[in-house]
Design goal:
mainly alpha
């Protein structure tokens, strides 16, 4: 029988994360569909994740594949970008923090085209401002002097 081991591993990880969320939300009041309690959404998303994980797992059967090698460089740069964003946001504002995070995360891939990074950083910063500032109305400074 042919099995894609990478898909099996991916499906099991998604199922485990969904189960973790559903179990954690079971301590909260669920409420009803009309009056949702604090546990309703995380529990529902946990169940949905478990279902999607099962679909990923089932799609692994009938084709061959192997577990891909782990990309340590990408993981370190992406986690570093998230940490840098969290550290810079209260000190410099949304725009510089988003730009810095994109630049650091882009350095994590050898396939990154350096001339495209400034455009990507500008697009992410503008998108973050539109989503968080304009649509959601979250009050955060766009630019702040760190001095």
């Amino acid at each position: 029988m042919r099995i894609d081991r990478g898909e099996v591993l991916s499906g099991l990880i998604v199922i485990a994360i969904g189960a973790w969320f559903a179990y954690g939300a079971s301590d909260y009041r669920m409420g009803t569909l009309a009056r949702m309690g604090p546990g309703f959404v995380p529990y529902s998303l946990g169940l949905i994740s478990m279902g999607l994980g099962a679909l990923i797992l089932l799609s692994a059967f009938g084709r061959e594949g192997r577990v891909p090698s782990f990309d340590w460089r990408g993981m370190i740069f992406v986690l570093g970008a998230v940490g840098l964003f969290a550290w810079l946001l209260p000190r410099t504002g949304l725009i510089p923090a988003a730009v810095a995070a994109v630049v650091v995360a882009a350095a994590g891939s050898p396939l990154t085209h350096p001339p495209a990074v400034p455009f990507l950083a500008a697009a992410v910063a503008a998108g973050a401002w539109v989503v968080f500032g304009l649509i959601l109305g979250i009050q955060m400074p766009l630019l702040r002097s760190p001095f």
